[in-house]
Design a protein that fits this description.
Layout lengths: L13 H5 L11 H4 L28 E3 L11 E7 L6 E2 L13 E10 L2 E16 L2 E9 L6 E3 L6 E6 L5 E6 L2 H8 L11 H7 L1 H4 L4 E2 L14 H13 L21 H5 L24 H7 L19 H14 L6
Parallel strand pairs: 3-10
Antiparallel strand pairs: 1-2, 2-4, 4-5, 5-6, 6-7, 8-9
Length: about 325
């Protein structure tokens, strides 16, 4: 969860965001003209944002939010989905939605930067598109003044300077295409964070109901009933871990952290075959003896693999605290 309180500052020029020039003969933006064609070199040519804020995408884009978001260096994220006209998302399997060909998903990341230390500005916009040959991944990197963004080739990861909450400057990573695939293709659905559990938690399930078929029921999926600390930990796993640790045969799966299986797979369980240090994943009452806690905490622990393994320059201190409190409480009760 983002803990910044400063306001969001987005691009300020209509020309930067809409590709408009004041001329009545300005070309239609790519989003309307050819959304399955070659991606434009500039985000301003896409036509996804209007006015001066990436918080408000243009119709027919629909904003949404996952209830259990992925930690991304503490940045703000603005998500939207664009469906072909008249199309719906197939929700027959509430845990694995099926999207129609031509679906576009945008996610813009905003941070304070050295050029804008007191207000978050867009730094990157990622695009996921379902074409004839499957899902395609793309990303645009915004310029320093946040006026426009340039399409990247994603052959290798790139970094951009951002300002952390303590005022330090760190390097935020825009992942390569291969790194993107490691997460998206390890998941049972390549679209992360768009399913009944995630959308119901945030309230977006109701907001997107008119494009979901069959329509959501009156009792959508929720986490299994547990104590408040256990529920918070399971929610963190949903947002940050289960795209890899999902019980599948994916190369990054290792062990299952989905809500119905996580507790049995980590409490008192050895790290055998987990590609990390030998030990116990969660040792009740002892966070510093729990390999899973040390991985989320990060640092220099011998042979403990940091988690998440990609795209994180800053650790999620709130999650570390919650996980540590939960493990400590497990020493006194079964389901804190």
């Amino acid at each position: 969860m983002n803990r910044r309180t400063h306001r969001f500052q987005a691009a300020s020029l209509c020309a930067a965001l809409l590709g408009c020039s004041g001329s009545e003969t300005a070309p239609r933006p790519w989003l309307q003209e050819d959304p399955l064609g070659a991606l434009p070199a500039k985000l301003s040519q896409v036509g996804i944002y209007a006015g001066s804020s990436v918080e408000s995408p243009l119709a027919p884009a629909l904003s949404y939010e996952p209830g259990y978001p992925l930690w991304s260096d503490g940045g703000q994220k603005f998500r939207s989905i664009v469906l072909p006209e008249g199309a719906h998302v197939d929700t027959s399997d509430p845990q694995n939605y099926v999207f129609p060909r031509g679906t576009l998903l945008f996610k813009t990341f905003a941070f304070a930067t050295p050029a804008s230390p007191d207000a978050s500005v867009p730094v990157e916009t990622r695009l996921l598109r379902l074409g004839a040959d499957g899902w395609e991944l793309a990303a645009y990197a915004w310029d320093e003044r946040a006026n426009d963004a340039e399409l990247l080739d994603l052959k290798r990861a790139q970094t951009r300077e951002i300002v952390a909450e303590d005022g330090s400057v760190v390097l935020h990573s825009i992942p390569s295409r291969l790194e993107c695939r490691q997460c998206h293709e390890s998941s049972t659905s390549e679209v992360l964070g768009v399913n009944e559990l995630q959308l119901a938690k945030s309230g977006s399930l109701h907001e997107l109901a008119h494009v979901l078929e069959p329509a959501p029921g009156t009792t959508p999926l929720t986490l299994p009933a547990h104590g408040p600390l256990t529920s918070a930990v399971l929610g963190y796993f949903v947002g940050n871990c289960t795209h890899c640790h999902n019980g599948s045969n994916g190369a990054a799966s290792s062990f299952d952290l989905r809500p119905e299986a996580a507790l049995a797979n980590i409490i008192g369980r050895p790290t055998a075959s987990s590609a990390t240090a030998d030990g116990i994943r969660v040792e009740p009452g002892q966070p510093e003896a729990s390999v899973l806690y040390l991985g989320v905490k990060g640092g220099k622990q011998l042979e403990v693999k940091e988690m998440p393994p990609l795209g994180v320059a800053l650790r999620d201190e709130s999650a570390v605290q919650t996980l540590g409190d939960w493990i400590t409480a497990l020493g006194n009760e079964q389901d804190p």
